[in-house]
């Protein structure tokens, strides 16, 4: 048996949707909670596959955890860490789990961590992580797919990142908290998730300045200076952008609640240029709407505060029915156009050449049987299916479940005709050949 999403498009989405905690923040906060000895509690934690994987990773280290579904919280008891090995079978499933490397090197002065996995959106090397840790004094070798790091002593250092890598910035921040002296990370990533991590670390007793700028300074503290805390994760700006796109492209009207609007400034400006209406209702809510056909625009993905690569596929889905020709340039990951073949199957007119995609708006998309290739490509297919004529069925939901909590429930609350169903392999093959009729859906 496998699960698929069945979506009947053509309905204008209306209503309210509440955004959950940021996946890309909470996973790093869970790693950071291993630095102080004692019990920390993190709130606004979405129930996602990636969160479950991270819980398993840190439990392997001997840390006790508990996820409370009712209050969306995770309790992490890091009084003792009994193992410094993060195994391949878990780390290979999710790249964010690689951040335990910096934590283990910082607290335990030793780590054995499998090389990371995650969505196949392109090459995401760990060179910057390794070189940065070596600059802090760690001795590192890579054998049999594992990073072996030992650091009898960590000393602050000036580290320059060739690109503003989010993962490297986070790993080096985590490792530097307990280093002697000051560490300066130049050309650091500036994403809101970096700021959230710095706020968490400062709350547990670290001394970090400059998060959110291109230069972050970490003044090392002692283990005895750290203490466990309770902390609330920031909202997920990518989830918010996805629902905003779904409402706008179906010519609907909706309120996005529990967000930080300033995290979405670049995306909302693009929506406005497409022809959408975006209105700030209060400090944590936006109203979005659109009554007309969208206008084509050009998009270049860039590190924050530029257009987020995580919303590129969703934006492409929107532009498949826009008036005119759009050019999308993916400047960060070479394989992040994996949604293109599936969108073409729905009738989209997309010409791709290397990291550029030319999108000519068409009058309509039609439903099709689709496969999600990665997290954000899967979300883009959902958005496309919502504005297509007829029925679409999307498989490989394990990708979507990595980053969207209760997706179909939230969309149904907005009026979408969507359901998650289990089908046997034989039944799905029959469906691919067109044997399902609408009365059965």
Can you walk through the features of this model?
The two termini are 17 Å apart. Helix 5 packs parallel to helix 6 (166-176), helix 6 (166-176) runs parallel beside helix 7 and helix 10 packs parallel to helix 12. The longest helix has 13 residues, at 237-249. The protein folds into two domains: 2-20 and 235-440, Enolpyruvate transferase domain (UDP-n-acetylglucosamine1-carboxyvinyl-transferase, Chain), CATH 3.65.10; 23-232, Enolpyruvate transferase domain (UDP-n-acetylglucosamine1-carboxyvinyl-transferase, Chain, Alpha-beta prism). The protein has 441 residues and is of the alpha/beta class. The chain is built from 15 helices and 24 strands. It has helices at residues 23-32, 49-60, 88-91, 100-108, 127-135, 166-176, 192-203, 237-249, 265-274, 312-319, 340-345, 375-387, 397-400, 407-413, 425-432, and strands at 2-8, 14-18, 39-43, 64-68, 73-77, 85-86, 110-114, 139-143, 146-150, 158-160, 182-186, 207-209, 215-219, 230-232, 253-257, 277-282, 285-289, 299-300, 325-329, 349-353, 356-360, 369-371, 391-395, 417-423. It has a four-stranded mixed sheet. A four-stranded mixed sheet has the order 2-15-17-16. A four-stranded mixed sheet has the order 4-5-3-14, with helices on one face. Residues 118-124 and 434-441 have low confidence and may be disordered.
């Amino acid at each position: 048996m496998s699960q698929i999403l069945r979506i009947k498009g053509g309905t204008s989405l209306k209503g309210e949707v509440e955004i959950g905690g940021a996946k890309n923040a909470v996973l790093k906060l869970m790693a950071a909670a291993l630095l102080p000895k004692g019990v920390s509690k993190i709130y606004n934690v979405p129930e996602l596959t990636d969160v479950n994987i991270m819980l398993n990773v840190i439990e392997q280290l001997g840390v006790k955890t508990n996820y409370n579904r009712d209050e969306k919280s995770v309790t992490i008891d890091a009084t003792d860490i009994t193992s410094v090995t993060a195994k391949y079978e878990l780390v290979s499933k999710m790249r964010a789990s690689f951040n335990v490397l910096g934590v283990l090197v910082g607290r335990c002065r030793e780590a054995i961590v499998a090389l990371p996995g995650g969505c196949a959106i392109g090459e995401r090397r760990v060179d910057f992580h390794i070189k940065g840790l070596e600059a802090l004094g760690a001795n590192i070798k890579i054998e049999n797919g594992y990073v072996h790091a030992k650091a009898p002593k960590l000393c602050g250092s000036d580290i320059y990142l060739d690109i503003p890598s989010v993962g490297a910035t986070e790993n080096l921040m985590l490792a530097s908290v307990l280093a002697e002296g000051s560490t300066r990370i130049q050309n650091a990533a500036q994403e809101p998730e970096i700021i959230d991590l710095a706020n968490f670390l400062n709350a547990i007793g670290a001394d970090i300045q400059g998060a959110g700028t291109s230069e972050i300074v970490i003044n090392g503290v002692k283990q005895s200076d750290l203490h466990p805390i309770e902390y609330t994760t920031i909202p997920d700006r990518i989830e918010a952008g996805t629902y905003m796109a779904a409402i706008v492209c179906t010519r609907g009207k909706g309120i996005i609640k529990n967000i930080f609007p300033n995290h979405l400034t670049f995306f909302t400006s693009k929506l406005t240029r497409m022809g959408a209406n975006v209105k700030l209702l209060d400090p944590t809510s936006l109203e979005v709407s659109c009554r007309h056909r969208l206008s084509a625009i050009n998009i270049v993905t860039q590190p924050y505060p530029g257009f987020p690569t995580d919303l590129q596929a969703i934006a492409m889905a929107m532009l498949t029915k826009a008036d005119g020709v759009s050019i999308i340039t993916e400047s960060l990951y070479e394989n992040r156009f994996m949604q293109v073949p599936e969108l073409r199957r729905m009738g989209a007119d997309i010409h791709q050449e290397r990291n550029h995609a030319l999108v000519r708006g068409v009058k309509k998309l039609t439903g099709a049987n689709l496969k999600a290739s990665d997290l954000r490509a899967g979300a883009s297919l959902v958005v496309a299916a919502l504005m297509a004529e007829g029925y679409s069925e999307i498989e490989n939901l394990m990708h979507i479940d990595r980053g969207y909590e209760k997706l179909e429930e939230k969309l149904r609350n907005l009026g979408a005709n969507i359901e998650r169903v289990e089908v046997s392999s034989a039944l799905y093959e029959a469906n691919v050949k067109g044997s399902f009729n609408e009365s059965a859906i």
